[in-house]
Amino acid sequence: MKTIFLAGVLFIISSLKVAGEYNPLAISYAFTPSTLDLAVKDARRDRSVPVLIYLPDATNAASVVMFSHGLGGSRKGCAYLGKHWAARGYVAVFVQHRGCDDTVWKNAAGSERMKAMEKAAGGKNYLLRVKDVPVVLDQLEKWNIEQGHALKGRMDLEHIGMSGHSFGAVTTQAVSGQTVGRGRITFTDPRIKAAIAFSPSTPQRGKAEDAFHVRIPWMLMTGTKDISIIGNADMASRLAVYPALPPGGKFELVLHNAEHSAFSDRALPGDTESRNPNHHRAILALSTAFWDCYLREDKAALEWLNGEGPRSILERPDRWQHK
Fold first, then answer.
1. How far apart, in whole angstroms, are the C-alpha atoms of residue 84 and residue 81?
2. Taking 50 as the threshold, does the pLDDT of residue 8 lie above it?
C-alpha cells in the first residue's frame, strides 16, 4: 500500500498494477451482462430445472461455469459472482433446484419455516440436486447446436467448471469427484474440469479420506465463523475437506470472521458480524484466477495463484494455502 499527497488531498493507493500484469479483478465497468432466464425440462423425472445464464460480451465460444445455490436460495442469488464471471468472459449458468429453493420458506408460515427448511435439506432433495446438474449439462449441449437459439455456438463445453454454496457446495462436491455412502456411490460428471465449493463439508458418515478421491482441481472457501443452522456443518467439517483431498491442484481460503452469509448477497438471520466488503473482493479474485488457470490454461493465472497474488488481495488474518 502506498500513501501520497496531491494538492493537499490524501490518497491511499493499494495494489498498484503494472501494465500487462495479471489481475483477476480487472473488468470493464461499462459492461453489464445480458441474461437468459430459461427452464430445462427433464421428462424422465417430470421435473423442470430453471436456469439463469449470464452472458459475456464476446459471442465466440466461451468456457462455462455453473453455480448451485444453497438451501432456500434461487438462481438469482449470488448475482455478484455471475456478473463478474461473465464480465471476465465466461458463460455463467446459475441453476435452481426445485424442492429446496426459496419457495420452501416463502410458502411456509413464519412459525413453520424452520421445519420446512430442515425437511428440504434431506436426502431426497440431495439426490434431486445432483441429478439436476447432468440434465442441465445435456441441455446446454443441445442449445449450443440449436439453430436460432440465443446460446448457439456461445459455449465451449470442453471446459466446464462447477461451483456452489452450502447445499450447493455439497452438490458440487458430489458431481465433481466425491463418493457417497459406504458403497462409495458416485455422481461424478466427467464433463466438469474444475470445481469451487463455497462452505464445503465432509460426509456425515465415514472417513473423509475415503470419500475424496478427486481427480480434478478443487478450490475451497470458508470462513472462521462459517456455521450453518441447518445441516450441522461446523468448522471442523469445513476444514477437514482440504487435508482429505489428494495433493495437486487443491486450494483453500479461510476468511477471517466470515460467517455463512459472507459468500451470498445478503446477511442471514442470526448473523453477528458486520459484512466485510473485502470478502467479496477476495472471493471474486481467487475464483476468477482459478477458472482462468484451469478452464483457460492461463499460465499467468497459475503464477498468480501460486505466488503472492492472493496475499495482495487478502487481509492479514485471512488464511490461504495450496498444494
1. 5
2. no
Q: Supply the DSSP symbol for 197.
A: E
Sign of CA dihedral 220, 226, 231, 235: positive
Which helix H or strand E contains 52, and what residues bound it?
strand 47-55
Q: Is 173 in contact with 196 (CB distance < 8 Å)?
A: no
| Verdict on whether the full-model pTM lies above 0.90 | yes
Q: 48 to each of 34, 51, 68, 96, 189, how far by Cα in Å? A: 23, 10, 15, 9, 20
* Cell numbers 451482462: residue: 33
State the amino acid at position 217 in one-letter form.
P
Q: Provide the 3-class DSSP secondary structure of residue 60.
A: coil
Q: Phi and psi for 279 in degrees, rounded to 5?
A: -65, -50
Question: At residue 10, does pLDDT exceed 60?
Answer: no
88-113 per-position pLDDT tens digit: 999 999 999 999 999 999 999 988 99
Average pLDDT, the chain: 92
Match 492479514 to its residue by C-alpha cell: 316
CB under 8 Å to 261, separation ≥6 — which residues? 267, 268, 271, 275
Residue 9, pLDDT > 90, answer: no
Q: Write down all domains in the chain, each with its CATH number in brackets.
A: 33-322 (3.40.50.1820)
* Phi, psi of 252, deg, nearest 5: -140, 130
Question: Can you list the positions of beta strands (E) in 82-154?
Answer: 91-95
Coil, helix or strand for 259?
strand
C-alpha cell at 31: 459492461
